[in-house]
Amino acid sequence: MLRYLLGRLLSLSLSLAAASLVIFLVIEVIPGDPASYMLGLNATEETVAALRADLGLDGTRTERYFDWVGGMLTGDFGTSYTYRVPVAELVADRLWVSLPLAAIALLLSTALAFPLGTLAAATRGRVTDYGIMGATQLGIAVPNFWFAMLLVLVFAITLQWFSAGGFPGWSDPLAALKALTLPAVALALPQASILARVMRSALLDTLGQDYIRTARAKGLSRRQAVLRHALRNALIPALTIIGLQFSFLLAGAIIIENVFFLPGLGRLIFQGITQRDLIVVESVTMLLVFAVILVTFLVDIAYAAVDPRLRTR
Amino acid sequence: MIRFDDLSLAIHGTPILRGVTLEIPAGRIVGLVGESGSGKSMTALSLMGLLPDGAETAGAACLDAENLLQATEARMCGIRGNEIGMIFQEPMTALNPVQTIGDQVAETLLIHNAAGRAEARAIARDRLDRVGLSHIGMDRFPHELSGGQRQRVCIAAAIALHPRLLIADEPTTALDVTTQAQILDLLKGIVAEENMALLLITHDLAVVSGMADAVAVMKDGEIVEQGPTAEVLTARRHPYTRALFEASSHAPDRDGRDPQAPVLEVENVLRLYPGPRKGFTRGDPVRAVDGVSFALRRGESLGLVGESGCGKSTLTRAVLGLDPVQGGRIALNGGAVDVHMPKARRAAIQVVFQDPYGSFNPRWRVDRIVAEPFHLFETRPPDWRAQVAAMLEAVGLSASDMEKYPHEFSGGQRQRIAIARALVTKPDVLVLDEAVSALDVRVRAQILDLLADLQGRFHLSYLFISHDLTVVRAITDRVMVMRAGKIVEEGATDAVFNAPSHPYTRALLEAAPVLEVAS
Fold first, then answer.
1. What is this structure's pTM?
2. Which residues in chain B have Cβ-Cβ distances shorter than 8 Å to A3?
3. Mean pLDDT across chain A, nearest whole number?
4. Domain of A128: which CATH number?
5. How far apart are CA B324 and CA B470, in angstroms?
């Protein structure tokens, strides 16, 4: 088990190093100089050069790469070209919106999908199954911003239970949670639909296995066989999907952030790209890569916890 | 006492069982014999109430006076595992991979509220000891155990509550002969000790003849003959019993051949696999094939026997030029066999595997399947369709079968297609890797006859790989016994079988069940 963990950790560090190099190089080849962009068309060459030196854009590529990586390792992500504030600060603010949003959405989606998927598998070919499958089909087909607008219409405008958008900050945790509820639901519904379908088919696969027959021959009822033997074996594919979904939710919430006027990571990276604020783009991308790799690592550990056969690899 | 009374079963309207009447007295062993699809397992599952969806039953399957076909599901859950235990064919997949074996044995007790958690574990430990696993910890997972050990765990779980009947559905079919002998011994011992009845379902008459007090022969959902084992197997009153009996010891007529020049030469071949990981390094490499040498002569049948894991398959892959070797050399008609050998040389050595269905693309028609090896030639011969048709006829099918798909054929017919495909390039050597192991005895006898006939007609050399000693004895001239990567004994088939010199060969022969009946 320890060797498995060490192996995973090693692969995690290597992935991070490779990712940082790729991100840096890609950003380097993107046309457009942030300094001339910031100063506008009429700037003289001297002013642009001065600004470039000020922003740390004048060293060689190797120097700049190691500056950047070294800075990140010590928590210094550089200074945003447009906002003129440390990127770390900028990201931290946004992370306090995006991270809870993703976590709540994932929690909701999992809490919805597991029972629904299990129920559908247990009632395979019957009305309940068809109902759940139909609903999840719809959940996947309908875009989440449409759900978002519907939720706003019903719960914010008509019922007035929630506000239609904005984020009050965490000084009042209850108000903050309330502001995140509708966006989280809108994000969770399509994800839950996907996860429920994966859960159902994984369960159906395991229900056809020989060990389920053995369990039934021991005297377990159908329900007991599902709960005691099939569920844990069906978790592996579900865990894979959950890992992918968290990564997606962290950065992919940009449309939902826009619908609800949330200052999240997705919007930050979008603004960074449009304003040639490359240091922000670089740092946020790296942060997202780190998050994805970390989640993959956690999912790997979860695999090993679920399936003893993976521990000895 | 268990009694099936005029039991009939249909699944989605298709009749599966017809008027099955059978008694299993307490403490006796009853063998239920028949070919695949004859309804043996369905008979057992009717009693267990575990029939597939769409099943309709008539008649009765009684435990004492209670007809279990009428019992509620809740009642059946109380009976399964408690009054009737059952074990299945595939020990490799019969246990939950994510639960410890101790938990899986204890579960039988917990489910029926027969013991508290601690007590259940104590009893589970005791049952595992009884089935010969006293050296295996309760916290081990199934994947850490061998097939035989897993079957022992299944038995421990099935007998944890001392059921009155144990149903064993082909319990040893997936196991090696020596393991099979041990498991059969174990079952016999437990049944006698616990005064338990045993319904032993098998396709192998030899297994039944050494175990059962009574035997029932099943064909197409009907019991065609039943009675005390010795009587049924000696008198063989029903023609089907007779056919089964003859087929299981069938030896095809083969003309004697003079030894000729070798076609396939294997010299000191070494196949290594990376050793187990130790920290960040690896241990010594595993010698899967360790210095094997032999020569296969033209027109000869050479058998290769050994238990699973002995290196048979690894050697086969090397001989086919599919894997590189780490030492020694393999030559076919004097040319080197390796991963990069020319296509023409590849065409001269072909293979038939155990499961033909798995090696056919289900969406291809038979003509395309059989013609596929032609890609080993520079150009496909212009008369390829005629050649495919001729080959199908040679293996006992008809030219019109070219238009069909694999699923339209029975298992035996599919194996004929696989043989036609292997022979279409007119090879010198045919490797038969467990090629008849999945077939029922009567079909197996037919395929063995076909192989003998084709060998004479096409001057083929066979490398016949099998774990089934009876078959190897029937079809080979010489035999090699392989163990742990090495050939431990080699010689003329009759000599090796009649007077084995190596202790391992002797152990193998002793373990093989023998159909011993005075005839």
1. 0.82
2. 277, 279
3. 85
4. 1.10.3720.10
5. 32
